[in-house]
Amino acid sequence: MSLETPLDAPLVTTTRGPVRGERRPDGSCRFLGIPYAKPPVGALRFAAPEPPEPWTEPLDATAYGPTAQRRPFADVTTIPEPSIPGEGVLNLNVFTPAAGPEAGPGLPVLVWIHGGGYVAGSAASPWYDGAAFNRDGVVLVSLGYRLGIEGFLHLDDAPDNRGVRDWIAALEWVRDNIARFGGDPAKVTVAGQSAGGGAVQTLLAVPSAQGLFRGALSVSGAVMRPDGPEVARAVSRLFTSRTGRPATAAALRELSDDELLDLQDRLGEPGPDREGLPPMLSLAPFADGELIPEPVLDALTTGDAGAGVPLMLGFTAHEFNMVPGPGQDGPPLPVLLGGLGLTGERAAAFAETYAETDPAGHFGQALTDVTFRAPSLAVADARAERERPTWLYQFEWPSPVNGQACHCLDLPFAFDLLEADGVGAAAGPTPPRSLADAVHRAWVAFVTDQNPGPDWPAYTATTRATKIWDATPRTEKDPLRAVREIWLV
To answer: Is 230 assigned a catalytic role?
Structure first.
């Protein structure tokens, strides 16, 4: 042991080799940047993940590992999401009350998949720290995965859905190793927000992922629509027509990160040649007919996907309401609504429903509904009809910063991290501690017992009971009826 290594630094031997973590002031431990697969570089850049090479000397696991994110969405994002250079981006972090010989009976485990539209995001965010979950007897694992072109573009000479394969490889690592960190591999709940919430829904629809988790928690989940191999091939053709590069691993493997991201930016630009393609999330999990047999929303609403897995899901009331309208020089709202599939009587119902809100926010509300609220409501309704254990919520507490419950606002409440960096900019200087206590307590209960507690009844076809997270949390009967009647009927 080096002079720099604390005497009480926890040491755990994984199936690939020993890792040395850090003991925190509260007695919990964290192990950061543990590789669950080989670095996806060279011949492995667009390949399925492979187990890492074994090692014998203790691996320093006291700093976050490299991230697949090389460029964030913007200079300032709601969630602080650092980009960390390096090749070994297929790594994960374990936060645990105790590890190694000192660990007691196996604890429930929460596996967290970060968001970022499947093209950005970072597991190294301070908003994903597991300290509060450890305090309450839950082991938390957060993972990184391949993004954008590397993770999700259909390539003729590479396996599809490489990012999804990364999630599965990480879950397999959890199955094989988490007991050594105090967790119970039979008590794993997979969770995530935005793209991560879509990842949860996707994993429910992947046959080879079944048995790797017993519960699912989808926060503001978003999936590709329309979906299917023909859509993925059309995105690849668009990529080639816009960049002049064949959509093959052979043509892209040697490009630098910056070169690949420049091509990715060109793929994402608006234009008439995008007609018929997903308006959002063109680089995202898709039904390839093999790993993902059918479109995720079809599998969850008309098929048997996730039938035996308890699911907690929901969204914020104003996810994308901060997206500005088109302005005086842009297309009128009816044209924009038509582009989202809303016409005729349903468009009129939308206008009537939101007649008392600021018209400048109507397009953002439509994006919120079509991307998050309506799809998740459809999943909840379908599961309720089949009597599958489901709990639905809407986070409504309005931040004093902008008067809305926007995308990502609920996360510091769920993680009980109101003092984390960046939270004040999103939630104001004094977000309600009582709300964080209530939301976090429900998450802990769900991960521990697969039920968020007696004050939150399951969502059924009869009651449609929905938890409303506000300054005073409450349960309402079918508060989202208007969303259903506008977007789903």
So the answer is: no
